[in-house]
Amino acid sequence: MIELYTWKTANCQKVNIALCEIGLPFRVHPIDLTRGEQKSADHLARNPNGKVPVVTDTETGITLFESGAILLYLANKARCLMPEGDAQKWRAIQWIFWQMAGLGPNAAQVIHFSNAPDGGEEALTRFRGELERLFGVLERELTGKSYLVEDYSMADISIWPWVSRFRRVGLELYDYPEIKRWYLAIADRPGVVDGVRLLQPEAEIAKP
Question: Residue limits of the GST N-terminal domain (predicted)?
Fold first, then answer.
């Protein structure tokens, strides 16, 4: 059994979707960030960094935080959603790290500074410019490909929830036709729909 400590963020959605896709049994423990539950003593015992998602595998006793590490662990445990060939496996891991280091942090900063009371225009311009560059990288990589690495994998799951925030970061997928095609194909997967709605049963996936 996987004990899943999660909320409604993009990083949490990655793990929510992965668990719904691979079919391992799991139990959901909502950690309400709006109430500061991630800073409780109980949660800090699971994750000293005070964030979500976190998983505990009751079969192995392993507890993990950081969504990228969790995706790799789940893929290894379930023996799915990662390419079997060594070269393709490392390419998938490469794209997970790309999301963790670039796409996610820059999108989060754009969302933050878009709602900053003091405007933060200089910072917003900087982060949005970098985010547009990263969308361009993804657009070129997806040209002529159904998924990032051969078949659907944890690489796609890692990136998709952040792309789903496209309107919140002031972008439109009509400007990125390859991303749009990839995004919509993944949006129709039952595991993705279930993962998005795990804590929000009425949630609608944004469509361009």
Answer: 1-82
User: Per residue in 43-74, pLDDT tens?
Assistant: 999 999 999 999 999 999 999 999 999 999 99
Instruction: Count the neighbouring beta carbons within 10 Å of the beta carbon of residue 101.
Output: 11
Report which of residues 114 and 19 the model is more confident about. Answer: 19
Per the DSSP assignment, residues forming a β-bridge with 90 are none
Q: Which residues contact 141 (CB under 8 A, 6 or more apart)?
A: 148
**Domains held by the chain: number:** 2
HSE at residue 137, side-chain half, CA atoms within 13 A, is 13
Do β-strands 62-65 and 54-57 pair in parallel, antiparallel, or remain unpaired? antiparallel
Rounded CA-CA distance 45/29 in Å is: 15
Residues 65 and 104 in one domain: no
Q: What is the chain's percent helix, strand, coil content, to nearest 5?
A: 55, 10, 35
What does the DSSP assignment read for 128-176? HHHHHHHHHHHHHHHTT-SSSSSSS-HHHHHHHHHHTTTTTTT--GGG-
